[in-house]
């Protein structure tokens, strides 16, 4: 029964489907489900490091195209070093004319929380080769605590299973009254 849902630009259609279902249910059985609204981040889409005309995707067959949260620092550096840019060495933001460099700027802004303008100011005087390493280091720093937690959880399987079991139990407790109310509203009780 969420009212605001954080989604990426490519999940907006899924949320619209949820909105339609909520509206149809409410029309037929009475106001029960809120119609959820999307919360979009300022970073619309992160593009592939190998082809900045398409979005970054974990299903991309090119291993160097996508940065994964669990990638090691060395893997992240390699992926950014091999990122497609152009022959102009200055760091600028022009997605139409310079999609590769603009993608790096977008990634840098996303992981640091800085605006595009602030990122460009920090990159003044850097060529794209050096800038790639700045972006790689920012990504490494952003992912470090997450990678650390993943490693910790993978090393302690019993703790991980306990977290999963507790989460499943809590989800059941939260969902049960809603499920029962839906059954009552549609006439299954």
Automatic annotation (TrEMBL):
EC number: 6.1.1.2
Entry keyword annotation includes Nucleotidyltransferase: no
Gene that this sequence comes from: Wars2
UniProt name for this protein: tryptophan--tRNA ligase
Pfam families: tRNA-synt_1b (PF00579)
Gene Ontology annotations for the cellular component aspect, listed alphabetically: mitochondrial matrix
Localisation: Mitochondrion
Record-stated family: Belongs to the class-I aminoacyl-tRNA synthetase family.
InterPro entries linked to this entry: aa-tRNA-synth_Ic, Rossmann-like_a/b/a_fold, Trp-tRNA-ligase, Trp-tRNA_synthetase
A GO molecular-function annotation: ATP binding
Domain of life from the UniProt record: Eukaryota
GO biological process terms, semicolon-separated: mitochondrial tryptophanyl-tRNA aminoacylation
PANTHER family with a match to the protein in the record: TRYPTOPHAN--TRNA LIGASE, MITOCHONDRIAL
UniProt KW keywords: Aminoacyl-tRNA synthetase, ATP-binding, Ligase, Nucleotide-binding, Protein biosynthesis
